[in-house]
Structures are given as C-alpha cells and as structure tokens.
Amino acid sequence: MWRVNVGRVPLFLMTTNLPANRAEDRIITDQLYGGDREMRVRQEIVLGIGGTIALRQLGYSRPCTT
C-alpha cells in the first residue's frame, strides 16, 4: 500500500502484485475498471474487505466527515 497526499487529503493505493500472492491474484489490481464482470467483483472485494482492514490497521476507525 502506498500513501500519496493530494493537497491535504491522503490517498491510499493498494496492490495485489506481491510475491506472496498467487499469480492469478496478482493481476487483480493491474487495471482500474478493466476486465470482465468476474474481475470487477474481485476488485470490489479487494477494495471493500482489504481496504477496510488496511484502514483499520492504519488507525482509521471512523467514517470521514465533511
């Protein structure tokens, strides 16, 4: 995971392209909005579940407020 500041807002970028992952799992984050319906579901799972876990580990425990 990488963190990039966009102005005053942190942007977190996730990847599945890690040596510990299986070859078929490493391509999930190769393209944004790319692939077929099955790939899109895989990407949404990574973003939803993986994103929640990552943000909690980084100390974010509440929804952002505007």
Could you describe the 3D structure shown?
With 66 residues, the protein is an alpha+beta fold. It contains two helices and two strands; from the N terminus they run ββαα. The chain has helices spanning 23-26, 37-57; strands at residues 2-6, 9-13. It has a two-stranded antiparallel sheet with strand order 1-2. The chain is globular, with a radius of gyration of 13 Å. The model has no long low-confidence stretch (mean pLDDT 89).
Which residue ranges are poorly predicted, with pLDDT under 50 across at least 5 consecutive positions?
Answer: none
Globally, the shape reads: globular
Share in β-strands: 15-25%
In total, how many beta strands? Answer: 2
Taking all residues together, what is the mean pLDDT?
89
- N- to C-terminal distance: 25 Å
Helix content: 25-40%
Q: Strand order, main sheet: write it out.
A: 1-2
Radius of gyration: 13 Å
Largest sheet: 2 strands, antiparallel
Counting DSSP H or I runs of 4 or more residues, the number of helices is 2
Structural class computed from helices and strand pairing: alpha+beta
Order of helices and strands: EEHH
